[in-house]
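Ops channel
N.P.: pipeline sanity check, posting one input/output pair.
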């Protein structure tokens, strides 16, 4: 069984191209993705992250369909998990 890192590496290679297959991500967007990832790694963001279990502040954000979602309304219905994704691919 592959480790999570191995599985994620395989997904990355299949998306970015592995030398034998072309990238599914346009080159200009792939450059932006790598630049932003590098900037995040250099920012020491992990040192500033709240500890696991720390309540998040209330927020309003658009969902994948553009509708505004309010965390307070969702929390009134029960526990809330938030997932962020990026990209246009």
């Amino acid at each position: 069984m592959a480790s999570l890192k191995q599985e994620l590496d395989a997904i990355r290679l299949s998306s970015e191209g592995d030398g034998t297959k072309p990238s599914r991500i346009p080159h200009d967007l792939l450059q932006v993705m790598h630049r932003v990832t590098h900037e995040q790694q250099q920012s020491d963001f992990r040192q500033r992250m709240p500890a696991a279990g720390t309540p998040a502040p209330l927020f309003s954000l658009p969902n994948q369909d553009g509708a505004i979602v309010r965390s307070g309304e969702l929390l009134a219905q029960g526990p809330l998990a938030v997932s962020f994704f990026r990209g246009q691919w």
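N.P.: looks fine end to end. The mean pLDDT is 87.
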